[in-house]
Structures
1.
Amino acid sequence: MKINPRQNFPLDVYYQQRSALADVAADPYTLAIIDFGNRSRFSHDKRLIIGTPALAGSHLLEVWRTDEIPETGVVGEIHYRKTPSLIFGQILMDSNIGRIESITQDAYRQINRLQQELDYPQMIRIWNYLSWINRHDDGMERYQSFCVGRHQAIDTSQGFESHLPAATAVGTRDDKVLIYFIAAREDGIQIENPLQVSAFDYPARYAPKSPAFSRAIVKQWGESKHLYISGTASILGHETRHKDKLLEQLDECLNNMDVLVAEAHVQTELGINDTSQLTAIKIYLLPGEDLEAVLSHVRKRLGDELEVLVLSADICRNDLLLEIEGLFSGKKSLLSR
Ligand code: 3EB
């Protein structure tokens, strides 16, 4: 099995057939391999297995590759690989050791310390996979406890809202808290959605401390630009739309993503116009919802060019049936140049 030719950028993200795993894992330039399964765990072959099982796209691996051989290390509970321009880190904690708030606070403090010590101060993109996200502990939904813990741990000095990473926060049905991220020496460009209240400005009823993330980030990696779209839901303003209506929620997510891609293009000359031109999307779908209906609607709307993964997950508001994140890793604009 031949693996894709390397592009000489500080970071390249692409999808590869699962049958190429051995080659990808043996490639010294591989930073990480993202895979999905029943339980969150680290694997010895550079795979990070996320406890949101793949309902569609299970033949694919997401591969992160660099232009310099990364150096591996462990600080506290964080396992990382770094190059001179970026650091990829992952932390896996047991959700039963305490409250989600304190676990989150601990994880984010460790991440923050790592960033300071190794000098990668800019968080670019972060994923949070939380055990039973809709469960109530201490009179609060776990997602809300997560928001409080995160808020306590991050730097909230003047103007911090304009430097927040793109993020995903969804629920698994295992007993883990898994967080992984990419941080850099230099900042990305924040993209917000004019149709949505910025999450960091949400009213307090969604969480006592506001969700600390940007709607999307454009990051320049050498000559290449990436777009990272946060988990995007059927939310207008700050309110959920189309309760209990799966395909209407799907359309609202995709509309929000189209707006973010268009904003990103206007602000950064990204070179793509809408969601169909992204490299890949990950659809987090509530268990029991109609997978085939989602897939056929997505293909009808977006065509066949982009990779579509559908992952089984709980969504942070219990009136949401799905949430979608997006990635553009620069390939198509390069090919069309
Ligand atoms: C939303 O728009 C949906 O708290 O890090 C999406 C992505 C959501 C990230 C987070 C939450 C987070 O509010 C929820």
2.
Amino acid sequence: MTAKIISGTVVAAEIRAEVAEKTKKLLAQKRITPGLAVVLVGEDPASVSYVTGKAKACQEVGVHEETIRLPADTPESQVLALVEKLNRDSKFHGILVQLPLPKQINESKVVNAIIPQKDVDGFHPVNVGKLLMGEPFFMPCTPHGVQQMLVRSGYDPSGKHVVVCGRSNIVGKPVAAILMQKQPGANATVTICHTGTKNLPHYTRQADILIAAMGRPNAITAEMVKDGVVVIDVGVNRVEDKTKKSGFRLVGDVDFEAVKEKAAAITPVPGGVGPMTITMLLVNTVRAAEIAAGITV
Ligand code: NAP
């Protein structure tokens, strides 16, 4: 069996077209342009590249985006004051503080300072709690993107055994929380694995749907999956590649070439989950604007 390739680029384009349509409608009917404020502290190259990607994506779907750049040595109090100001600014429906932050700034304090109604990253404890309780408001972007990829590609998780490798607060835990809910597009039996899991292959081999979010290149091998598994590879890892100008290439957590021979479907890296993350940020931002406009969704 050679797997169907689930392209995040294709699914993301479909969702972005829907977002652009909603943005047009908001402007025509309510004279509202959804607004996103992005706060970037320092010049970490990966963060700069993510922020640039977010700005471009916003522009493409008609979301007003402003990136506020602060020097790396900005004190915590100044970042908190900026967040407070953005909380009150009605032209921004969403606020995103790019993580990681320099070490003098407490990330939790900053995330907690964003009002839940503008927390389009879905990281505020109120939004995390709501998700767990089955009353999601803003869902975190990468896990929500994983769910959308599954559902829109015809792999409804309902009744399936989903095995998640990784338990981080940004991917593993929320993806498990989303897929275990008694909701359409979820309702799965979920197992979460981590470094404390003894005999990881014992669990991964039981997966109907395997979600790898470990940050370990090629950690999931063909021997660790059953025939017909659906694999979502969240991992993004740099491995040395002297044939590339940059000196590296990106790979996921899954041995793609070997696993695709056994899987029913699999996401590539790059071009898999990556494009979905920014797309779900756009979804959340437009939804925030719709809620602010009194359109209940
Ligand atoms: P993280 O915070 O480092 O968490 C990694 C998780 O994997 C931890 O829970 C860890 O277990 C577990 N783990 C690590 N090695 C393992 C092993 N050998 N066996 C079983 N479990 C193992 O990483 P993250 O932020 O969740 O990100 C995971 C990956 O996804 C990274 O490659 C990241 O770059 C990528 N990512 C991609 C996107 C995207 O948009 N495509 C977004 C976010 C993240 P412990 O808890 O026991 O340490």
